[in-house]
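Shapes recur. One chain:

:::
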Amino acid sequence: DTGVRGDALAALVACRAPSAVATLWKIADDGQAPGELRLRAVSLVGALGDRALAAALITRFGRWREGAFSDELALALATHAAVVLGHLGDRAAAPALADAAADAAFPSLQAAAVAALGELGDCAPATRRIYDELASSSERSVALAAQRARTACVR
């Protein structure tokens, strides 16, 4: 049962089991695993709160984003990864997130990437231009994310 497996993963993370990270990556990367379980694994990477995991997640984010054109699950994984990258707070994720934020092909991913940039506190001039441009997007979720991120830059 996927729910039970997901709960087992959450328990590994909660008790900080030494095998937690390897198990999460294994499931997140397993194309045969149920999508719901793979998404949960990505979210649990964020629950660990370890910035050192960002580099591996940035790589996966890029791969899943590339796969999004032909795979709906890849789009969902990339979107989850963007959110987690924002939570992890490693500014090394900013270039990959900015690239996704500037790409309107997938509004859900674009909104997640913009929100993650805002969470990172990325207020570089190029990123602020992205926020300014997207603040008036016809995609409401994108516009709201950009407005929030832009507001955080003026504080």
